[in-house]
Specification:
The protein is of the alpha/beta class. The chain folds into two domains: about 190 residues, inorganic pyrophosphatase (n-terminal core) (Alpha-Beta Complex), CATH 3.90.1640; about 120 residues, Roll (Diaminopimelate Epimerase, Chain A, domain 1). Helices cover about 35% and strands about 20% of the residues. It contains 13 helices and eleven strands. A six-stranded mixed sheet has the order 6-7-8-9-11-10. A five-stranded parallel sheet has the order 2-1-3-4-5. β3, α3 and β4 form a beta-alpha-beta unit. α2 packs antiparallel against α5 and α4 runs antiparallel to α5. It is globular. The termini are far apart. The chain binds manganese (II) ion (MN). Manganese (II) ion binds next to loops. It comes from Lolliginicoccus lacisalsi. This is DHH family phosphoesterase. GO terms for molecular function: nucleic acid binding.
Length: about 325
Amino acid sequence: MHEVTALLARARDAVIACHIHPDADTLGSGLALAAFLRSRGTRVSVSFAEPSALPEVFATLPGSGDIMRPSDVPAAVDTFISVDAASSDRLGELAGYVGTAAHSIVIDHHRSNAGFGDVNYIDATADSTTVLVARILRQFGEAPFPRDIAHCLYAGLVTDTGSFRWCGPEAHVLAAELIGCGIDAVAISRDLLDTHPFGRLGMLSTVLGGARLLPEVAGGQGLVLATVHEADLLGLPEDERETVIDIVRGTAEAEVAAVLKETGPARWAVSLRSKQCVDVARVAAAFGGGGHARSAGFNATGDQEAVIADLVRELG
Ligand SMILES: [Mn+2]
């Protein structure tokens, strides 16, 4: 961390890269760091490579209007910072800066991160990357945090911890500190986690109505699965289907939950979750995917029933 703070203190031109298909942790980390560096006089661009537009849900994050398209980011900078990306391919076209910037810094909390920067601050015990950014800003004496920075840090914290359902004491202490900075924590949770278009109700009705319980799978611990066909989305933003697994995984009769998301003709993105025993990262890896022991995913091609049969066989 001290090497990171030393580089940040000297940065004159910086590019901050969030990961592709950004979430509130990567955006909150990037925007908080950008606001802080700008307050010190550093020229900063924040960007992410895919998709081409910021999902509407993140428009509430302070500074989100300044996020740039990769094509508008300066080509030559002295400092490149990757936030919350487990590997350089999670940066899309922005990965090129790792080789061309004078200094590249990686800040992340994924256990699988091999450290692809010149200087890497990786702590897999941190519950979000915004926890790491908060620690860095504290090193500069930046506490209490300005409200916009506190808002961004809290956004990553509340979402990556599942509203503080899976996290340690540091996350709770930081939450209290951020709320003390004057943020509206209730509104942040409501905007990021509890606000959906009306059409989601119809999508959920179709998708959950077709859910299946296979009690004999995973050595008799049970698999619950649901499928989101492209037609079920009916114009909803694609990120609305990411919330389906969080409903399905609560099924008492199943240790493992799976959601098949149709991404094209006979193409599927499969999300896996487990509760206590099954290592779904191992299962996903068998299909070329990856993730954490309790949360993982992979891509598959072929007929829906064939994909399910393969998954059932791998789960045992
Ligand atoms: Mn994260």
